[in-house]
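lol ok so funny story. i was supposed to be doing the assay writeup but got distracted and ended up predicting the structure for this chain instead. priorities right. anyway since i did it might as well share w the group, maybe its usefull for someone
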Amino acid sequence: MRIVVLGATGAVGRHVVQYALAADYEVVAYIRNASKMTVHHPDLLVVEGSLSDLARLEKALHDTVAVVSALGVSHRTPDKQPSQQLPVILEAMQKAGVSRYIGLSSGAAVNMPGDRKPLAAKIMGHILNTFRHTAVEDKRRELDTLRQQSTVTWTLARPTRLIGDTLTQEYKATAHRPRRLWTSRADVAHFLVQQVSDNQWDNQAPFIS
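and the output, tada:
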């Protein structure tokens, strides 16, 4: 099976590429600057393009089964945030016949009905909302957009705080309350790849901790 990875050269995305290849997926890394991709593998295809280029993105999506997005919020390009690009991604997916979207959200910033966050997570969310308001609003808009559409089945991972790059596979996905306030980037990436073939968290945004 072939998947498309967005944000493939980022802190989480590079782990997504690694674990997807290890799981025998063919990977299409759709990135703005192909020179930033340092991984070389016979099952990795690097496609350089903009997320605003509907035709090119649609072409990259052909014959794939899922989009795994590890896109982060950029303070340098406020007019090109992930939530603003999501409608184009969803349209390209629909045109290409791809119905699975897996993305990276935020446990501290994003709330779901029934959440029972510990006090420390609530404080962390308040701090983020104060000092990184753009990122918080972007992640909330991403969730709203996915919940309002009906063309794709989605899963958003909500880690509270990302630290380190060690894969432990000791993380847990939980619906309403995180077990702890940190998760490694590698573990979150591992969860994202697992969701390509797992429907347990369809149309949900579990905490990863």
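The first helix runs from residue 13 to 22. The chain has six helices and eight strands.
back to the writeup now i swear
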